Amino acid sequence: MTDRSVEGRYCRVKTKFWTDEKVRNWSDDAKLLALYLLSSPHANMIGCYVLPKLYACEDLGWSLQRFAKAFEELLRDGFARYDENARLVLLPNYLKHNPIENENQAKAAAKAVAELPRSPLLQDLKQLVEQLGKHFLKPLLEQLAEQMAEPVTVTVTITETVTNHVSPNGDMSGETPDGTDANPNGESKTDDVKRVMDHYNRRFAG
Questions:
Q1: Cα separation of 69 and 90, whole Å?
Q2: I need a surface site. Which of 44, 45, 88, 117 has the fewest CB within 10 A?
Q3: How many CA atoms lie within 13 A of 191 on its CB side?
Q4: Could you give the CA distance from residue 14 to residue 6 in angstroms, rounded to a whole number?
Q5: pLDDT digits (tens, 9 = 90+) for 4-24
């Protein structure tokens, strides 16, 4: 039996790639880079994957400057989109030529999405998947929605002013603006004052 992990994935590239008007106007480097993005060893079945630019340069044997020039052509013509922060590339037409054809593939695609970093490109991908109009794509759409969900952070700030009163024996008690005692033992203001006065009476009035 052939080991598919050794063979790698399959990707469809239609013959009209070479006769497409946009492609014909690309430089040779842009044409090669487009084929690389379609068949990259870092790619997945949804055409949206993490690709640090230096990885691509290493695979192609190019300088970063050469890569940037060819990549700019593809970005300008809409062949690819790129999120610099997440280092995520999206090929908008990938699913059109490499469709997800059943529920099992949709579940596998959802797993691929779960591995992606949070990025605005996921919203673009979700819209592309919705346009396919296939009912079995529901697991993929649900995973995309979950992946894009922003965590909710609630910050509560409590400001409390404490006024310190010094008793005759040098003890201090804290009072908040509402009249309650800030004593860490949880005693009320009245209890605290009574304790201080009792101590004072025992010491000086007896």
A1: 18
A2: 117
A3: 8
A4: 24
A5: 443 556 788 888 899 999 999
Q: What is the DSSP letter of 181?
A: B
Q: Which amino acid is present at 191?
A: D
Of 31, 128, 141, the C-alpha closest to 77 is 31
pTM over cut 0.70: no
For residue range 33-91, list pLDDT tens digits in order: 999 999 999 999 999 999 999 999 999 999 999 999 999 999 999 999 999 999 999 99
What are residue 172's DSSP bridge partners?
166
Integer Cα distance of 76 and 196 in angstroms: 79
Give the long-range contacts of residues 79-86, CB within 8 A, separation 24 or more.
Answer: 79/22, 79/34, 79/37, 80/34, 80/37, 81/121, 81/124, 83/119, 83/120, 83/121, 85/119, 86/50, 86/116, 86/117, 86/118, 86/119, 86/121
Helix (H, G, I), strand (E, B) or coil at 42: coil
What pLDDT digit, counting tens, does each position of 127-158 carry? 999 999 889 999 999 999 998 886 545 455 55
User: What CA–CA distance (Å, rounded) separates 85 from 195?
Assistant: 62
Q: How many angstroms separate the CA atoms of 124 and 92, rounded?
A: 8
According to DSSP, the residues that pair with 166 across neighbouring strands are 172
Residue 96: what residue type? K
Rounded Cα distance, 59 and 69, in Å: 16
